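pinging the channel bc i need a second pair of eyes. not urgent but kinda urgent?? the chain im working w is below, pasted from the shared doc
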Amino acid sequence: MKVATWNVNGIRARQAQVQEWIERERPDVVCLQEIKATSEQVPQALCEMEGYWCVWHGGKGYSGVGLHVSKTIAPERPLFFHPAFDYENRALAIEIADITVASIYVPNGGKDFPAKVRFLEAMAAYAGRFADAGRTLVLCGDLNVARAERDVHPKERKPRAIGQLPEERALLEQIIGNGLVDVGRALDPDNDGLFTWWAPWRNLRERNIGWRLDYVLASASLAGRAASCPVQKDVGTSDHAPVVATFT
C-alpha cells in the first residue's frame, strides 16, 4: 500500500502539478492539505481522476483537506468521515479494510495558539482510542510542529518560534506515543536534512534550509512493513513537499 501526503498550498493554483503527481505515483491513498477551496471550487479534472474516489473538505481561500482513494483497494465507494476533532475543515478520514487513514492539517497557531493545543490534544486522544482498541491508524499531513531540534535547519532554529515550542513537541510525542511510528524518521534516522517545508524566499528550498512539518504516522503493526518514505523535495511549487510512504 502506498500512502502519500502533500500540503499543496492552494489546489486551484497547483491543479496540474497535483494531477500529474498522482498519475505518476499512483498512491493508494492521497492526503492533501491546505486546499483553500470549497468542493465546488476544486477543478473538475481532479474530481474525476480515473481510478480514484475523492472527497474535498474545505472553505473559500483557507485551510481544507482532501482524500483520493484508489479503486484498486476500494472497488466500492468507501465511507469518508470527519474525526471528532475536525475544526476549520482540517480533518478527513477513510476506513479501508481494517486501516483508518486521516488527512490532517493542524492549525499553525500563530493567531490562536490555544486552538492549536486543543487540536493536538484531541488528536492524541483519538490516537489513544485506536491504540486501546488495537486498531490500525495512519495520520498523514501537515502537523505544523517540527518534532525535534534536528527537524529544523540550524539557521531556522528559534527557541520561542511557534512550531518549535516545547509544549507543541510534547503533544506531538504524546500523539506518537499512542502506538504510532514516525515512518519518515524511522526509515531515515541519521538524516539531519530531512525537511518538508521551506519559507518561500532567499532560495531556502534550493539550499535545503527548512523545517520538517509533514508526517506519515502509522500504527507500529503497519509501520513495521514500511519499505520507503521519502520527501519528494523537487516536486511542485508549494512551499511544502510531498511525503510518500510505501508499505509491503
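so Residues 113-133 form the longest helix (21 residues). and The chain has a mean pLDDT of 97. — does that match what u expected or am i reading it wrong
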